[in-house]
Amino acid sequence: MEHLKNGILVHQKIYIEKVLKRFSLDHARPLSSPMVVRSLDVDKDPFRHRENDEEIIGPEVPYLSAIGALMNLASHTRPAISFSVNLLARFSSCPTRRHWNGIKHLQATSSNHAEILAIHEASHECVWLRYVIQHIREDYGLSTGKEAPTVMYEDNTTCIAQLKDGYIKGDKTKHILPKFFFTHELQKNGDVQVLQNRSSENLTDLFTKAIPTATFKKLVYYIGLRRLKDLKLCNHEGE
Questions:
Q1: Coil vs helix vs strand at 219
Q2: Which tens digits make up the pLDDT trace of 202-215?
Q3: Nearest of 87, 69, 81 to residue 32 by alpha carbon
């Protein structure tokens, strides 16, 4: 923890240096993102499951120790690497050289169904919050006219279209219960408005997928992560 001119910075710089040295990566060349963008072709995906002819790396390679060390970072000061760490942790029982390369790279999408369920839950929370706000306004004699709709963001265009049209039984929706289209009714009533959030602006992509370097850097900045040397430089310039 460091006290800077504009606030307090929490970091694990010394811990990271120890981790890199422990795994003989303290002289490795820095990379700009924690994971390469994955291929849609399963056969070309570097993080696919072990193939029959692939050799499992032996105990001399500290795969589990590296995962544990990285999880500590991801859960405290480096949330931007959480997706990458969780993905690589899946192969802890039988890691291959490909997966170990992913660990070394790091040390330097949900389905439409899931999207519908998630926005359904968010809609319920939204209704409750709007009710609480309305109740407070009434108690204090404030204006109780029609409130503007609460904006909810979604990056899945198919999901947005389905919620706009309401439940229509078809191949894409037959496995989803009609009750989960509650958001459609809220939109009709003017309580909520579902707008598209472009993937390049979606902060949650940091935690759910491997993304291009430029997008990764932008989203990391948006969630408030800063490099210690950049903050110190700004501090000196402001003096």
A1: helix
A2: 787 777 667 778 88
A3: 81
Main-chain phi, psi angles of 117, to 5 degrees: -65, -40
Cα radius of gyration rounded to whole Å, the chain: 23
Is the model's pLDDT at 217 over the cut of 80? Answer: yes
Q: How many CB atoms lie within 10 A of CB 202?
A: 19
- pLDDT tens per residue, range 106-127: 767 335 666 777 788 888 888 8
- Higher-pLDDT residue of 220, 172: 220
Q: How do beta strands 2-4 and 7-9 pair?
A: antiparallel
DSSP designation for 33? S
Global model pTM greater than 0.70: no
CB contact set of 164 (below 8 Å; sequence gap of 6+): 184, 187, 194
Q: Is the pLDDT of residue 189 over 80?
A: yes
Helix (H, G, I), strand (E, B) or coil at 7: strand
Q: Where are the alpha helices (DSSP H) in 140-203?
A: 157-165, 182-189
Q: Which of 145, 136, 176 is nearest to 158 (CA)?
A: 176
In angstroms, how far is CA 235 from the centroid of its own chain?
30
Average pLDDT over residues 66-93: 81
Question: What is the Cα–Cα distance from 80 to 220, expressed in whole angstroms?
Answer: 7
Task: Give the pLDDT confidence score for residue 110 in this predicted structure.
Answer: 39
Q: What is the DSSP letter of 2?
A: E
Mean predicted confidence (pLDDT) in 86-107: 79
Name the nearest CA neighbour of 77 among 3, 10, 7: 10
**Main-chain dihedrals φ then ψ at residue 171, nearest 5 degrees:** -60, -35
What is the helix (H) or strand (E) element at residue 99, kind and residue range? helix 97-106
Distance CA 83, CA 80 (A): 7
